[in-house]
Design goal:
It is built from 8 helices and no strands. It is mainly α and 222 residues long. It starts with a helix and ends with a helix.
Length: 222
């Protein structure tokens, strides 16, 4: 027996409601799982994506099971209408999941980079206090990269000042020269985020300090 137009509308509304509810549940799951995996920090991008893909698959299978009996009584035209609505809902849900997963991964990635930057910064400060400028340079430049990737501009400014302090204190010309590539990369990165000239003074300051330290050591003024 063919299902009436009223029944078709009911089914279509049921499908729309299903996908809206599915998305709301998945949003909550993303927040919870993303937070937990972010704390664990182990293969979080892959785990989070696989988890949400699995959830989406389970939701669709649930919908298809609920509609299985109804499909048997549908005309070809109405069955096609229902199938198109399911396909449309699934595509929309999939797109939204991908957007949410990407944003959640970006958020977690930013937090991890900032935390990593704080570790490098602390290690660099320890080595600086011990006058081990070779390691201090390594850790400080690593911290700069992490703060940059984590979009932490407050600590970015602090780490630049720490690197400047290293330039001022180092008494090994060859060691300072070895920092040229790291120094140039740092300047390049600062230029990339120098909207409205907010890093112009910082760039000028560290450039001047690096050059003056090179000159000092070349002239043998320790």
């Amino acid at each position: 027996m063919e299902i009436s137009n009223i029944d078709i509308s009911t089914l279509l509304n049921m499908i729309d409601t299903f996908y809206n509810n599915a998305w709301n549940r998945l949003t909550i799951i993303l927040i919870i799982v993303g937070g937990v995996i972010g704390l664990i920090g182990v293969a979080w991008p892959v785990l989070l994506k696989k988890f949400t893909d699995y959830q989406a698959k389970m939701e669709v299978e649930k919908l298809e099971k609920n509609l299985k009996d109804q499909f048997q009584n549908l005309s070809d035209e109405n069955a096609k209408l229902i199938k198109n609505r399911i396909d449309k809902g699934m595509n929309t849900l999939s797109e939204e999941i991908n957007k949410a997963v990407t944003k959640k991964l970006d958020d977690v990635d930013i937090k991890i980079n900032v935390a990593r930057g704080l570790i490098w910064h602390t290690l660099g400060r320890y080595c600086y206090d011990k006058k081990d400028f070779k390691l201090a340079f390594i850790y400080y430049f690593n911290a700069f990269e992490s703060y940059y990737d984590g979009k932490d501009e407050s600590n970015l400014q602090r780490i630049v000042n720490s690197i400047i302090s290293c330039y001022e204190e180092v008494n090994d010309l060859s060691l300072l020269k070895k920092q040229e590539m790291n120094h140039s990369h740092l300047i390049e990165k600062l230029h990339e985020i120098n909207e409205n000239g907010r890093y112009s003074i910082t760039i000028e300051k560290i450039e001047e300090k690096y050059k003056s330290s090179l000159k000092r050591l070349k002239e043998g003024k320790n």
